[in-house]
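Weekly modeling sync, notes
Attendees: S.R. (lead), two postdocs, one rotation student

Agenda item 3: backlog of single-chain predictions. S.R. asked that every request posted to the team notebook include the full sequence so nobody has to chase files. The rotation student volunteered to paste the first one in as an example of the format we agreed on. Action items at the bottom.

Example entry:
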Amino acid sequence: MNLDLDLTGTTVLILGTAHSARRALRRCTHAGAVVRTAHTPADVDLTSLDDVRLVVAVDDCQGGWDEVLVRLRRTHLVVREDAAAPGGQVILVGGGPGQDELLTVAARKALADADVVLYDRLAPHENLAELTHGAELVDVGKRPGHHAITQRGIEELMVDRARAGETVVRLKGGDPYVFGRGSEEVAAAREAGIPVRVIPGITSAVSVPAAAGIPVTHREVSRLFTVVSGHVPLTASECEHLAGLGGTIVVLMGIGTMHQTLAGLRRAGMTTEMPVAVVERGYSMNQRTTCSTLGEATSAATLAACSNPAVLVIGEVVRLGHDWPRELTELAGASLGVSG
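Predicted structure, as returned to the notebook:
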């Protein structure tokens, strides 16, 4: 069925069991149709269908529809629709760095099949109503200092809705298994006996630096990268290991602990001339990159009023980015580059 049809005011008859036809019902309702349903062949009254303009036949594997459909096709436009996905399951979906076009094909399919979507603030959510064709949308995003729903509450809601027979999509920014607490939610579903699967997403650890033209690896420059959470300051031991390991360091949501991170790396022996970039709001219209060096980056970020969501990139690969000021290559630490 063409889900882009404008069915406003059009009477649509949906054939199929309530469970199998629930997606077709949601989509037609979302498209503005006046919906009538028939859950069994016996429910179809062929003498009272004058107002029906479209018949949607859901493949529910229930016998007895063939004769009804033969008769309906003589007088009505009939289209076939696959049955809705089995209910009572949880699907964790990685939404990527925020743009709809960076959702994977599997992610889009899961959203189209969802009965309810529990989404985070960093997940692509502006066009969710269209991507889900009318599924219930629940904002469970946690913001700094404000958790509308606790992590435990999210897990309980996810399990309760799945137990009620619904297909629950848990939509997250980036990848569910990269600082997304995805493994905790999978464990909660499994403990409750709920079928659960994970659809990976494009992690911001790689994609957001790429949006600024910064590769996390580059031949003869960096052959490894380390991804770090910026929610909690690194210990002295961790800074020593990172400084000694070399390569590229990528810190997610690192603005709040940026001072401690950079100071710790300096104390661990990293040169103050090491390039540093702060990429804010990657892939949005307000994306901005602030470039500096390890010795100047804290002041540069303060001057630029940098804020999360942001990805901090530390390493020689920063010099390859779109926004690296060329004068810093010659006079490291002498100036600050800010681009819009």
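Discussion: group reviewed the output briefly. Residues 151-163 form the longest helix (13 residues).
Action items: rotation student to repeat for the remaining queue; S.R. to check formatting next week.
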